[in-house]
Write the structure tokens for this entry.
Amino acid sequence: MNMIVTSASSATPNGTTRPQVRIVIVGHVDHGKSTLVGRLLHETGSLPEGKLDMLKAVSARRGMPFEWSFLLDALQTERDQGITIDTTQIRFRTNSRDIVLIDAPGHAEFLRNMITGASQADGAVLIIDALEGVRDQTRRHGYLLHLLGVKQVAVVVNKMDRVDFSAARFKNISDEISAHLNGLGVKPTAVIPISARDGDGVAERTGRIGWYKGPTVVEALDRLEPARPLETLALRLPVQAIYKFDDRRIVAGRIESGSLIAGDEIVIMPAGKIAKIKTVESWPVTPVAGRQGAGRSVGITLDRELFIERGDIIAHAGSAPRETRRLRARIFWLHDKPLAKGDQILVRSGPKESRATVVAIEKAVDPGELSSTENKAIARNHVGEIDISLSNPIATDPYTENPRTGRLVIEVAGRIAGGGLVLSVDAGQRAVPVDIVPVESALRSDERSARYRHNGAVVWLTGLPASGKSTLARALERRLFTNGGSPVLLDGDTLRAGLNSDLGFSAPDRSENIRRLAEVATHLARNGHIAIVAAVSPAREDRAAARRIADTAFREIHVATPAEICEERDPKGHYKKARAGALASFTGIGNDYEKPERAELVIDTSTRTVAEAADEIEQMLKTTGVLFDEVVDLAANI
Amino acid sequence: MDHLDQLEAQSIYIFREAFARLKKIALLWSLGKDSNVMIWLARKAFFGKMPFPALHVDTGKKFPEMYRFRDHYGKEWDLDLRVEPCPPIDAVDPTLPPAARSAARKTEGLKMALAKYGFDGLIAGIRRDEEATRAKERVFSPRGLEGNWDVRDQPPEFWDHFNASPPQGAHLRIHPILHWTEADIWAYTKRENIPIIPLYLAKDGKRYRSLGDQDITNPVASTASSIDEILVELEQTKVPERAGRALDHETEDAFERLRVAGYL
């Protein structure tokens, strides 16, 4: 369901109004999907001129009888193997619909392609071979249609010519598949007997299926409804980015549901901060006055400066999504390695991402099996329900309340490995919106910078333990202070004794540690001070988060002293303990320190003195606009 | 929202995802109708100015009208334009048929530009309806270290979640108008009043439906001398869009071989 099509849409450029529906054809391998597609294209007059003749000629050249499925097998690689390997999109028309057909393959290997295709569909055709009946892949695809939220499913029983157009055989299959789908909460819109090869039941009720009184395939497609508009649901605007290309601070994203207009009171989740929409920005004409509804990609400005980041969800106060660190989801799994309890995963919910741990697995089954046995882990192409614990709070809805925000995908090693629906959000606590109205300082920033002779900044020293961060930080602090500036040292270890005493050294705790350091440092910087942060901060992602928080005030310095020298120095004895195995989660002797890629400055303390290193930092702060060029000689003014 | 609004919103979403999730991207500007629509969409996504370079991999064999268009609108649209040359034809696989070989030269030029700038994402204006092999594409499509496309091992992509982590040294192709059709492009060009190269409009009973290198692109018979007339023509025609592109007709698999090697 990539695109929502309202019935008022003009699908053709010449002004006629025809609803567009996207459909997918699924089912067991070799039950005749490609044949049905080829036949449909022919029956609806949708083939490009000469295509049929060209393929007939190619078949003759290869000494093979022509088959309708050749139409789709445009790729040489496919013809060689005889299986459709990926989704193709083909357009044709019925009486009152423009149909976009996503051909989904049936080979079990390619379930990920079936999901890629079916996830964009408004409706589906599930095909079953009359001779073979309901097979494992038929059931699996039925289950996935349910998980993907495809509600309109027409079933076709193909190859009726192979069972002598037996009404009894048709009824058996029809009953079996209807029971299976009903069990999943999917009600078939029609069950149609056809022979895709000969054309019976596709566009015409031929004499051979005279006993059948329902719609043909073309008629069934003609009755599909475009996806339901999402404007009637509560507002959900997931934030994709914050842009500051000019003096506007634009919060950009796509409205997934509901609508908004300038002047609306909104709440930013999961933090629960409240603001008002000042303008809705656009281009080439801006701002726009009208109400913006679901499906629109928009940009808004707010009436106050709040910290917002990618992944936050903007909603109306009173109908905000739930904030949670724990949720239950029903998922399908596509990765080679089964998903097991305790696995570390990355969860994406819209633009929001969070690391997470699988804390429980239930109902792990092969949806293709008739009577399912429950497994401990969710194997490839299987489904299950999982409880996950997230390292960062996210804002989400159960899918029954919002089909767009109530779904998530799971990534393993940077690749999408599964996905599913949010069943429930733990604790059910609806975060109380916090009406934060920041109190502005009585002082203007130019008053402060006139006194300190510098702008506010966050100087972030990252590097291995014992690389010299704290020593440099202290030297810089002294130097800036001597020159009349206002430096404040924030040492990672020192803050762990107080503000961060609830945090350990797990990856999520380290992230939170860095976030708090960055927030405090940014607050100081906004008030004109130079916050000097000395923290190992090994994760690139965490430092990127710090940079996002501090924004243009951020100056990253990589203290790149070679690892051997750091270990040799070892003033706190940490390396020694870690080598002896007495210090778990110690950064330095493993390979877990991720070097910065675009630090403002790199300093190796093994090749220069502390004073020289401080000079370099001072120089960098001058060239990047933090320190004003001419440092006032305080003594001269006395 | 009408049909074009929906297409636009989806493309803007894709542009913003690419900009947020990749480090260094560029838009491949072929000067044709599709990439002009892409630039327009990018300016909508980013409120006026495209915040990454427009890369023109220049074969040196485009029509003079195309170069004039590039030089004029590159300035007017305030693009960060990078023009990169292609290697001489001798450097290209001699077993390919002539037109495919010529197009493969562009692929080489593209690889050189990639090596020069280190882009991790290239935005390309291909559409699913153009050509059968393009229908197989993902919106975020990983390319191997050699710029090649592995059709058999494409990651799943659903609910607008894209695989945005190419392996070190490899890059992603991003396709913001993959879901558009040729008629959509023209209808949108008209609605938004986006400038076009006049070669698309019929003169003396012929017009170009698709613009490539001068020596391997032919006009098709047409009397459509305005965008409205083009739209009427597209309603009726059953001739494929790339009919005028010589390379599509050389052998059954020439196009596919090119795509696997990294051609757009």
